[in-house]
Design goal:
Number of domains: 2
Oligomer: single chain
Radius of gyration: 21 Å
Order of helices and strands: HEHHEHEHEEHEHEHEEHHHEEHEEEH
CATH superfamily of the largest domain: Type I PLP-dependent aspartate aminotransferase-like (Major domain)
Number of strands: 14
Number of helices: 13
Structural class: alpha/beta
Bound molecules: 4'-deoxy-4'-aminopyridoxal-5'-phosphate
Distance between the termini: 22 Å
Largest sheet: 8 strands, mixed
Strand content: 5-15%
Helix content: 40-55%
Length: 412
């Protein structure tokens, strides 16, 4: 991946400005907004437009924010609006993320949770272990605090903890271990319970913090679920959990939360006060009202079924169009699967998926190239597809177009 390093000819930028790397994923939103032809959008990891509960949100909005009271437009408490904190605690009760009020801070989405975690733990030059591939914006947050990244391979059971140990022994113990344990972005892999336990054990041994970024865990296709790292840690302060409403309600809300040991709360509050004072109060009230009205459970149940249907459609389409040139993962939830090309390029090998991208876009399909998910550029032959935001017939069409693009590359 080409990382854009910033510099300025005349202004005295901070050293850290050179560590601000752009997000290929986020930039795809503006890139695609500028296209006028028909494109099947398998790039961005957003919930399906039709899955966003816009009508239910509009229904609760007047009481939540629009009843003529100025109250919802004031500053909020930094730790979060009491109504949302209470509704969130009730939502989490009985789940693997069950928690208590003294552990919760409401944030501006998952991204702010990741920023807070890195701000609290990462000094310039510190090692942060990340999955390889990983969610770029998460590793970019670590880089923005001038971390050095340790890329740890992922297989069908998630981060390979034995390789993390070997890397840590060879290159130094990471201060932070960043993981997306469930339906990982981008691979779709879920870390097994045994791996989660091994990871916690290693983090304890090393004195590392585990940043547990688990935004998709409620979106599994089956009922059985692997316990969260939060639950398995059983109150050990080493786990810093980052969660968001972006995938289960809507990303434009920009509302999420972090769940941390209460001993961190004063520092978290200080960090957030120096950042944005408090999370957008009207949106906190809106989410609280949505939860209080009991909409979430049914909404998530419908989404899970629909996303499963879409994932199956994508598996079928891939089998139909790409089985001779690629292999791919079969996630049990979430939004994404990961395709590795094995052939189809001009020399018979796999084409570079960054070079393939403009050809695919011209054919009317968008994805995210694999190298967007590795600062070291380890995945030139891979790509991430989001199945969640596109209906099955369009998924078929998108994968068909991908094949056409590949054939065009292969024949030069
Ligand atoms: N972590 C992961 C793994 C994600 O996939 C995302 C969203 N793509 C986020 C964090 C960020 O969540 P939010 O949009 O709530 O900031």
């Amino acid at each position: 991946m080409t990382i854009t390093r910033t510099s300025h000819p005349t202004l005295p930028l901070a050293d850290r400005a050179a560590s601000l790397v752009g997000s290929v994923i986020d930039s795809s939103t503006s890139l695609l907004a500028g296209q006028t032809h028909d494109i099947v959008r398998l790039a961005m990891g957003s919930p399906a437009r039709e899955a966003i509960p816009a009508a239910a949100l509009a229904e609760v909005a007047p009481a939540a924010i629009g009843a003529g009271s100025a109250d919802a437009f004031d500053y909020a408490a930094t730790e979060g609006d009491p109504a949302l904190r209470e509704a969130l605690l009730a939502m989490l009760e009985g789940t693997s993320d069950a928690t208590t009020a003294d552990r919760l801070t409401i944030t501006a989405g998952g991204m702010q949770g990741l920023d807070l975690a890195n701000k609290l733990f990462v000094d310039p030059g510190d090692l942060v272990a990340v999955e390889s591939p990983t969610y770029t914006n998460g590793s970019a947050t670590a880089l923005s605090y001038q971390a050095r990244l340790l890329e740890v391979p992922v297989d069908h059971e998630g981060m390979v903890v034995e390789q993390l140990r070997a890397l840590g022994e060879a290159r130094g113990r990471p201060k932070v271990i960043y993981t997306i344990p469930t339906f990982q972005n981008p691979s779709g892999a879920t870390m097994s319970r045994a791996r989660r336990e091994a990871l916690l054990e290693l983090a304890r041994e090393w004195g590392s913090v585990v940043v547990d970024d688990d935004p998709y865990r409620m979106l599994g296709f089956a009922d059985e679920e692997v316990p969260s790292l939060h639950e398995l840690a059983d109150g050990d302060p080493l786990v810093f959990s980052v969660r968001t409403f972006s995938k289960i309600i809507a990303p434009g809300l920009r509302v999420g939360w972090v769940d941390t040991d209460p001993s961190l709360q004063p520092l978290l509050i200080n960090a957030k006060q120096a950042m944005d004072t408090c999370t957008n109060l009207p949106m906190q009230r809106l989410v609280a009202a949505f939860l209080q009205a009991g909409h979430l459970q049914e909404h998530v149940a419908v989404q899970r079924q629909e996303y499963r249907r879409r994932k199956e459609a994508m598996q079928q389409a891939l089998a139909e169009h790409l089985s001779d040139v690629a292999r791919w993962t079969d996630p049990e939830g979430g939004f994404f699967l990961w395709v590795t090309l094995e052939g189809g390029g001009a020399d018979g090998g796999p084409p570079d998926t960054e070079a393939l991208f403009p050809v695919a876009l011209a054919e009317g399909v968008a994805y995210i190239p694999g190298n967007a998910f590795s600062a070291e550029g380890r995945f030139p032959d891979a790509l991430r597809l989001c199945f969640a935001s596109t209906p099955p017939d369009r998924i078929h069409e998108g994968v068909r177009r991908l094949r056409v693009a590949l054939d065009r590359m292969g024949t030069g």
